[in-house]
Amino acid sequence: xxxxxxDVAVVGSGLIGCSIAWHLxxxxxxxxxLEANSVGSGASFAGAGMLGAQVEMxxxxxxxxxxxxxxxxxxxxxxxxxxxxxxxxEYVPEGIVRLASSPExxxxxxxxxxxxxxRGLQAEWWTPEDVQALLGIQAESCTGALYLPDDHRVEAPRxxxxxxxxxxxxxARIREGEPVLDIAEEGDGVTVTxxxxxxxxxxxxxxxxxxxxxLLRRFSWSGRVFPVKGEGVVLQATLLPxxxxxxxxxxxxxxxNDGRLYLGATEQPGDxxxxxxxxxxxGLMDRARRRIPDLGPYPIAEIRVGLRPVTPDGFPxxxxxxxxxxxxxxxxxxxxxxxMAPATGRLIAExxxxxxxxxLLEAFTPARSAPAKREPA
Length: 377
Ligand code: GLY
What we know:
nine-stranded mixed β-sheet, D-Amino Acid Oxidase, Chain A, domain 2, single chain, alpha/beta
């Protein structure tokens, strides 16, 4: 084993880890990213790519505000990455249609539209006839819809590849096939022990999705991140005239630029498995066909599986662990990791290099969990 040094070691090369690395490296910080498998193997590559700052949020508050600020960065973020790397993340500024399936759900969505408009955002109510005319498909059992024109979309695997390459081009190093076994404070720095090498860094940021709190066991911190497995089915549906993302309570359909259609997604809390199951995927396809009966003949191009990193209170942990200023975490974005990647990367990098956190991050402090009464591992 040889020892290697960095200013900041980032554990995890998904969208969150690579966004932090990209921003840090641009500021001249020597950044090393450690990836257990390969770039492209985690949840970032399984996502549908909806930038659902409005559609995925049920109430105003800090998560809603972080999502809005990240969404506002997306167009430039994608453009800059495309110019720098040659990889187009396929940012498409078309909105999301949130379908209601009962009078009660229609009322709930109309209320959601109201508080979002009061916050100065766009949210239009569509009748079932509007849905058919404006969405381009007949959505069965639709009782109306909330149209959110500013919730756009990207192609998540392309964005994740662009960010990883962007981080490299900015000078970050990425080591694949290097699962981290231990993280320890030693002297005036941190030692990160991987399977192959031992690394020294001034600070570490754990951005390892659902595995993040497991890697921080020795720090007597009571925060917890657990997986909610999601499976998505990608159809080759070039001839389906679906123009915008359609999002219902139990299934969503996201069109892609090349004619594919992403059907998402299952939700299985606590399931660490990485293979799609017949039961979960067939249930998802049944729900999609109940909404849009015409889907039947289209071929399946791909099935994607990812583990959403979820926390007990639904907020990500962003910042240093209480009492451990060199040990940072950026994980637990649950259903919103793709949306939150630009703001998370920028705000964490600014905090690490400037010393003061943005007020946008206040609610996400890892210190909100009381330290656990347990011995260091
Ligand atoms: N954001 C969509 C999902 O997690 O399924």
